[in-house]
Amino acid sequence: MPVVDQRTAPSTPRRRPAPRLAVRKGPSPRGRAHGLWPYALIAPAVGGMLYLLVYPLVRAVLISFQDFRLRQLIAGDAEFVGLRNYRTLLTDPRFWEVVRRTFLFMAINVALIMVIATLVALMVERLGRIGRTVVLCSLVLAWAMPVVAATTVFQWLFHSEFGIVNWSLTSLGFDSFERYPWFANGTAAFAILVTLIVWQSVPFAAITLYSALTTVPLELYESARLDGAGAGRIFRSVTFPMLRPIFLLVLSLEVIWTFKAFVQIWVMTRGGPGDATTILPVYAVQTALSGQRYDLGSAASMVTVVLMSGVLLLYFRQMLRQEDETR
Fold it and tell me: Subcellular localization, per the record (predicted)?
């Protein structure tokens, strides 16, 4: 029988093992721990936000539906009265006068802030390096000043006896402004508050708009100038369409900022003289503190939130409609 050499004999092909089906296993305990770790890290921040923002809002909503006065604040046996507080509030002529003044106050402030901030941003864009640095630093310093400190400075500026404004006007020959009581005149006090809030708000809006201006390609400006467009036409046709979302954002923030302005008015005039500088946030605090009507004060706060949200929703709707038409 012949002997076959195993080294030269043809090898028999080996059968490959059948591939095993991959079985998906559930996440390991270590994987689950890693998946929960990010939520554990943000849990304290979320809990703090819920406690500081959501809980007071819910509590204010509940108080607005209760008979909540000083006795109920101490004893804690407030009774639900439904919409009675809102009916009392909405049938008060003084409340509607305050609403009218609030919208007037907001419109004047927002218009001045947006116009001045846009002009400042356009000016900073055209300045040299040194001038731009000086202006931006000045804006940041003005923006960083605490609200109460700035309000106190304005009180001293318009002080009837020691204020530099009266001294300057008297030195220029306006003798009628000698010891002029600015805060005893409703129109004058209103104008001073508008000046203060505009002065505090312009830095943020101007810096934001300037930052957005730096993103507009220079080629667009050069093309517009070659077509013979002037500065106004360039702003309307190039700058504003490119920065429309930023303008919308800044305008929305300024509406919120001016609509809920409270500290400046409360520190400077407390809503006076009379009701000349009383807007909705001040009215809510006056109602809650003067007669211990915390229920009416909460109702006024809720109406303020609803009105502010309505204004923003209407504006967003109009802006989105304009964007759809331009597409």
Answer: Cell membrane
Residue count of the chain: 327
Q: 254-269 pLDDT, tens per residue? A: 988 898 889 999 999 9
Cα–Cα distance for residue pair 127/119, rounded to 1 Å:
13
Convert 128-143 to b/e letters by CB count within 10 Å (16 or more is b): eeeeeeebbeebeeeb
pLDDT digit string, tens, across residues 209-243:
999 988 888 888 788 888 777 878 888 888 888 88
112 domain residue, yes or no = no
Alpha carbons within 13 A on the beta-carbon side of 18: 2
Counting the structural domains of the chain, the total is 2
Cα four-point dihedral sign 286, 287, 293, 295: negative
pTM value is 0.80
Question: Are residues 166 and 268 both part of a single domain?
Answer: yes
Same domain, 75 and 179: no
Is 160 a member of any domain?
yes
